[in-house]
Write a structure and sequence with these properties.
By secondary structure, the protein is of the alpha/beta class. It is built from twelve helices and 14 strands. The chain has helices at residues 6-15, 39-52, 72-89, 99-103, 146-156, 171-181, 198-211, 235-245, 255-259, 270-285, 308-314, 320-325, and strands spanning 18-19, 27-32, 58-63, 93-97, 117-123, 137-141, 163-166, 189-193, 214-217, 250-252, 264-268, 297-298, 302-307, 328-330. The chain has a seven-stranded mixed β-sheet with strand order 1-3-2-4-5-6-12, with helices on both faces. A four-stranded parallel β-sheet has the order 8-7-9-10, with helices on both faces. α2 (39-52) packs parallel to α10 (270-285). The longest helix has 18 residues, at 72-89. It starts with 5 loop residues before the first helix and ends with a strand.
Length: 331
């Protein structure tokens, strides 16, 4: 390892690189855009671990923590720290999760001679935005079950005529909305908003309460008290206020949204993303195949979720057949 990387590697260790038990059959570096304890990240980790269990690989995980710390300087530094881990650890395969890991790290490996194979997952943008696919890069794109979630709500409230979608201003949310705007939906979505500040968020929710029959929510984890704050607000604080003050139901596209109080949703499953990416990594290590031989794929499994506590609070009757069919019911 060259001396110019040593300080960055030390920083990376303090920032939260986690190492599994090693058996030296192969090396996998997982680079997560966000932090441990964030439900989506934990689910991806669970899926990867399931795919790689008993494979005997040495696995390290680096958490860029760009959901809580959102300054450009932090994102750039985190990408540099991840690159330093590639230099020191020399993995056979790198699994990169979510868009910031691609933008600030993985795209620098795409097509680079001598670079490890890269398998991405949880990517909301067009992979071409990051130079993917490449000779050494493939992966799993994330696309929300947007129209299906709205169709689910329509069965609960057939009288609904108009919806509004509200999500934070993260790169993940912005790219997700690009996809959602192109979809045909059973109920029209009249407006799409990406508030940055807490004041903007509160106004968006208040306006939607007066002008829509429900709010479709994707993410709420990068809302800040002020636009130039480097640290995001606690997501629970944002969602608790939202559920308490929104006069119409909130429906969600991710698992934690329903867990935090949204009425229902058909959610992307991070475990599926992690499992598919882990299996690709295992096949790359165990064969002479290259990443370019694996077409970019899309995760398809959605978790049907219903929050009956919220339904009771809102005095909404959820059809029994829907409750029976749901994968997750919160009581």
């Amino acid at each position: 390892m060259s001396h110019r990387f040593m300080p960055i590697v030390l920083v990376a260790l303090f920032l939260g690189a986690v190492t599994s038990t090693a058996m030296a059959a192969g090396k996998v570096l997982v680079v997560q855009s966000y932090h441990q304890g964030y439900a989506w990240v934990d689910d991806i980790d669970t899926g990867i671990n399931k795919a790689l269990e008993n494979a005997g690989y040495e696995v390290k995980t680096f958490y860029m923590d760009t959901k809580r710390k959102t300054s450009e300087e932090w994102k750039v530094q985190s990408g540099q720290d991840a690159m330093a881990m590639v230099e020191s650890f020399k993995p056979d395969v790198v699994i990169t999760a979510d868009d910031n890991a691609q933008k600030y790290f993985a795209q620098r490996l795409a097509g680079k001679p001598g670079a490890p194979q890269v398998v991405f997952c949880g990517v909301n943008a067009d992979p071409a935005d990051y130079g993917f696919p490449a000779a050494n890069v493939t992966g799993i794109i994330e696309r929300p079950h947007f129209a299906q979630t709205i169709g689910m709500y329509q069965k609960i409230n057939p009288a609904a005529k108009k919806l509004v979608m509200i999500s934070d201003d993260s790169i993940t949310s912005v790219n997700t909305m690009k996809f959602c705007k192109l979809q045909d939906t059973p109920i029209p979505v009249a407006d799409y908003q990406n508030p940055t500040t807490w004041e903007q968020w509160q106004k968006a929710i208040t306006d939607a309460s007066e002008n829509a029959d429900a709010v479709v929510m994707f993410n709420y984890h990068t809302v800040k008290q002020a636009a130039d704050d480097a640290q995001s607000m606690a997501p629970k604080e944002v969602m608790d206020w939202t559920i308490s003050n929104c006069k119409v139901p909130v429906i969600a596209l991710l698992t934690f949204g329903v867990q935090d109080g949204a009425l229902c949703g058909i959610a992307e499953d991070g475990r599926e993303h992690g499992y598919l990416a882990g299996n690709m990594a295992k096949e790359l290590i165990g064969s002479s195949k290259k990443a370019s031989e694996f077409p970019i794929a899309r995760a398809h499994r959605g978790l049907v979720m219903i929050n009956l506590k919220t339904a009771e609070t809102l005095k909404i009757k959820v059809p029994y057949a829907m409750i029976k069919a749901a994968k997750v019911v919160i009581k």
